[in-house]
Amino acid sequence: MKTTRCTRATILLAGLLPLQLVGEKVSGGGQATPPASLKELSGSRSPATDLYQKQASAYRDLQRGKAKTGGLQSRSTILSDGRYWTMVPKGAVLMVPSKLKGRVNTKSTGKFLAWQQFYLRNRGWIHCYPVQIRQARGEQAITKNALEGCRQTGRVTVAVLGKDPVSISKRALKASL
């Protein structure tokens, strides 16, 4: 079977080739040597690999408290229950009752959780308000009745598009105030 290294890696991931064929290089003596790295296996780095490495680096910096100014943390609102914390985009938190102000924009202490995991653990004090993309962009206002309903829940209200937090344009909120 004559295939390129990249094709062999793809076939291996599909589980169709035995492991010893992946990335083999045949030197003058006919001995197969394993690839030194994934980069060597594929021939070049993919954009997804670069993006993953940037995200992993940013997350490590965030955990060490060395987040760059103007980075992800500066564009986010931190929600914390004291043991776990998460980040949502600035402008996603619509309402914060006075009794829960200590849980919004606090220090990122404890363990970081992705939004979905954090919400599942803390849905007793977080209310997700579903919005449309037109509302997030500011093309359509959020009604006064909707905001009043959020206020009456007594929970921190986070705007979500689908299941994920989303920033709401100030134009959508000004029209309703």
Overview of this structure, please?
By secondary structure, the protein is α/β, with parallel strands linked by helices. It has two domains: 38 residues, no CATH class; 98 residues, no CATH class. It contains seven helices and nine strands; from the N terminus they run H-E-E-H-H-E-E-E-E-H-E-H-H-E-E-H. Strand 3 and strand 4 form a beta hairpin. The longest helix is centred in the N-terminal third of the chain and has 18 residues. The protein is globular and about 50 Å long. The protein starts with a helix and ends with a helix.
Features of the shown structure:
177 residues; 2 domains; 34% helix; 7 helices; 3-stranded mixed sheet; 4-stranded mixed sheet; globular; alpha/beta
Write a brief structural summary:
With 177 residues, the protein is of the alpha/beta class.
What coarse outline follows from CA principal-axis ratios? globular
Structural class: alpha/beta
Radius of gyration: 24 Å
Provide the helix percentage. Answer: 25-40%
Largest sheet: 4 strands, mixed
Mean pLDDT across residues: 77
Residues in β-strands, percent: 15-25%
The tally of structural domains comes to: 2
Number of strands: 9
- Low-confidence runs (pLDDT<50, min 5 residues)? 6-27
What is the element layout, followed by pairings?
Blueprint: H1 5-13, E1 25-26, E2 32-33, H2 38-42, H3 47-64, E3 76-80, E4 84-89, E5 93-95, E6 111-112, H4 115-122, E7 126-130, H5 133-137, H6 144-153, E8 156-161, E9 164-165, H7 170-174
Parallel strand pairs: 4-6, 7-8
Antiparallel strand pairs: 1-2, 3-4, 5-8, 8-9
